[in-house]
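S., here's the first fold you wanted:
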Amino acid sequence: PGIHQATLGWKHDFSPHVHFDTGAGPSYVKTQGQDGKWGYNGHAKLNYAIEHGAFNLGVDKTYAVHNFSGTSTGGTIDAWMVNGGFNYQFYAHFSSGLFASYADQDHQDAIVDTSGTPADYHEKIYSAGISMKYGFWRWYTLTLGYTFTRQDTDNTLVFGYNENRLYLTLGAKNELFRW
């Protein structure tokens, strides 16, 4: 059981400020007790850099295993995702970011209840957020952020939801050695 993907891509810098990346290829999914299924994957990303920041826009197409139950019998997810964002560096150690995304997912042969009966359903997921990051003492970062997520579904056994998440994270990184 598993998923196998191959992607052939192309990257191009149209100017010192405009960068483009795209790729596509086949996907093969095999889950326990089911025949293998073929799909495709792909992505396209555009980045526009300004003096202290960047705008980005992306589209992704994925074909993956639905593994909600923690087993390999969960069917497949055929999804399209669109996302965009803006990051800005205010000072040497202080930056901020905004993002928004939309995902459209088709779930096929997903096990969503205790009877084990496969079901097909559709989900739409909307997300937006903002964050502020402060770097200090050379290796540490403190991030404060907020995200809002809304999930809509046509399946009566999988409930849609709205989520508001406020988070504060402390991170540390250090280069241990160089090659």
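And the second, which I think is the more interesting of the pair:
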Amino acid sequence: PGLLAARLEGTAAEPAYVSGEYEAALAGSRRAMAVCRENAEATGAVRNQYVVGISLVNLGRVAEGERELQCAIDAARSLGMPRVVGTSLEGIAKSRSIAGDISGARAFVTEALALYDHIGAAPVATATALSAEIEFLAGNCERAVELATTSLAMTWLASRPFHLAMRHADLTAYLIACD
């Protein structure tokens, strides 16, 4: 029962994160991660560690979040979980961009994109959107608009309505700011 409850709590933490409820996502993922570790459920622990890390980054606790994300990368690599490696690399790219380290952010998102290309994974649209955000922060408006347009098209083709709304908002913001 404890492991099932942890899986449910970890599953509930993901939509909390996506909807911007970072404290709830952090708390739920931490509890789920602890139970998964107690029960030797390594893959569940790693997935929850990613949510812990990215939630911390979005709460402004960048250094702490990066440590969690790096641990998630190391564990996911050893467990053969390349998608978790990729999303965790994106998380570190986001944290580097928040910290103002544009070259570091670019390096991590480029690594994530190369990994996705290698495994044929679908998260390319989100990584491309993150690349647009990084270029925007670097002052490269035209490149940000180009990447945001590409990400929007990828998201449209993947039929992901929630993400589609986010991509439209991103592109609109860049177009307004770059005008």
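Why I say that: The two ends are 56 Å apart (CA to CA). The chain has a mean pLDDT of 91.

Talk tomorrow,
H.
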